[in-house]
Amino acid sequence: MSNFFGVDTSNYTTSLSFVEFDEHTGNFKVKKNLKKLLPVKSGEVGLRQSDALFHHTNQLRELAPQMFDENFTNVSAVGVSTKPRLVQGSYMPCFLAGHTFATAVAMTAKLPLFETSHQMGHILSALYSCDRL
């Protein structure tokens, strides 16, 4: 069994996840998934990027103890969304919070860090949910 730790800090939600991979069966299983919506004031339709970055920083600090309260073994890698899409110039500051956090986790645990996009996370999530990985 191998476990993978994932981080995503979109413009709407702070997300942390542990996924287990069984090499014998080739199956993935989400072992733990934490999400927290970013606070948007009543009557407003979204957040400025600077506000999203601020809230993600605080929410990562809040979610981390909940994520790491169990002994997850055999963690093989850390994955993180670093931009909205996998195209040149795709950038949103809100992803900096997750990228910094995931980098610190990977460096501390001496694990490889895999960078991807938020869009790819949606695609893989859809494939996972219909058992098409």
Could you describe the 3D structure shown?
There is one protein chain. With 133 residues, the protein is an alpha/beta fold. It has helices at 49-67, 94-109, 118-129; strands at 2-9, 13-22, 27-37, 75-83, 113-117. The protein has a five-stranded mixed beta sheet. α2 links the parallel β4 and β5 (113-117). α1 (49-67) packs parallel to α2. The longest helix is centred in the middle third of the chain and has 19 residues, at 49-67. The mean pLDDT is 91.
Number of alpha- plus pi-helical segments: 3
Largest sheet: 5 strands, mixed
Q: Show unreliable segments.
A: none
Estimated helix fraction: 25-40%
Biggest sheet, spatial arrangement of strands:
3-2-1-4-5
Structural class: alpha/beta
* Overall pLDDT score: 91
Distance between the termini: 17 Å
Radius of gyration: 15 Å
Shape: globular
Strand content: 25-35%
- State the total count of DSSP E strands: 5
Task: Jot down its keywords.
alpha/beta; 133 residues; 5 strands; five-stranded mixed β-sheet
Brief account:
By secondary structure, this protein is α/β, with parallel strands linked by helices. The protein has helices spanning 49-67, 94-109, 118-129, and strands spanning 2-9, 13-22, 27-37, 75-83, 113-117.
Topology:
Blueprint: E1 2-9, E2 13-22, E3 27-37, H1 49-67, E4 75-83, H2 94-109, E5 113-117, H3 118-129
Parallel strand pairs: 1-4, 4-5
Antiparallel strand pairs: 1-2, 2-3
